Amino acid sequence: MCVTCGCGDTSNVRVEGENDGEHEHVLADGTIVRHAHHDAAHAHDGHGHDDDHSHDHAHSHDHAHSHDHAHSHDHAHSHDHDHSHDPGHDSHHHAHGGATEVVALETALLAKNQRIAERNRGWFAGRGVTAINLMSSPGAGKTSLLVRTLTELGTELPMSVIEGDQETSADAERIRATGARAVQVNTGAGCHLEADMVERALKALAPAPDSVLFIENVGNLVCPALFDLGERARVVVLSVTEGDDKPLKYPHMFRSAQLMVTTKIDLAPHVDFDPARAEANARRVNPTIRCLRVSSRSGEGLADWYGWLRALVRLEAYS
């Protein structure tokens, strides 16, 4: 569960081509749940698991509930409500009150994510894989930029893609049509990719050594900024069909990125968008951010984008 926006739990995440095995996720109350998944779609409609929950947070229970499965409690705050645990379900509906619990949960979730992100970073470094996290609002043109890039640079740089969307494999299919390899990650109700999702996708995708891996995040300018995936660089994509004040409205996203790519620049004369003002706003929140303007349709500015990619790969090779 994303404690920033309250989006759904990660038990519904499906990684295309994932092998049988086990994964874990953290529930809203801090419970760690481990699941065995049995097929590539990772369906959660009536699957079986041990439901072996371990609680490391402190509170005491002052309510009646029945347990059909084993889990241990090390609690120290009180509840005045009744609930029952059903091992066929992954979510607990605890009514935890107060900001303290939310902050503690957020800290635990982000710390867990960071540990896996560092593991991903080591995996990338050990294989010479340059991982790039692409983030934007929905419809800003990330996939179109990737399709053009893969088509024109595919023979020069080995590249593959992890595609993040709530549902469908439409974008992964567009990527594969270029000849590049791609794995779709469907987050269900989730609004962003997390490090463990990338870790699972890496097992299915197995990017080639000394290659470029694009991670196309779920369309969202808020939560993806908070979750390190282990990437080498972050790129935020801003379309001219959006407002040029977006960097000021979503400063955390633009502050966390090394590069801002303004897309659909061929439409700029036809919309109320000032590219120079958008770039100035981005530099107000992040003075070191680089800015490029491109059109995946006309090809304008793509040489600069390709030059940035080549430089990043060279930098990675010598770092």
Terminal CA distance: 35 Å
Q: Determine the CATH topology of one domain.
A: Rossmann fold
Helix % is 25-40%
The number of strands is 12
Mean pLDDT: 80
Strand content: 15-25%
What radius of gyration results from the CA coordinates? Answer: 21 Å
Name the helix and strand elements from N-terminus to C-terminus, one letter apiece: EEEEEHEHEHEHEEHHEHEH
**What oligomeric state best describes the polypeptide chains here?**
single chain
Please mark out the parts with pLDDT under 50 across 5 or more consecutive residues, or reply none: 22-96
Count the helices. How many? 8
- Adjacency order of strands in the biggest sheet: 1-8-7-9-6-10-11-12
CATH architecture of one domain: 3-Layer(aba) Sandwich
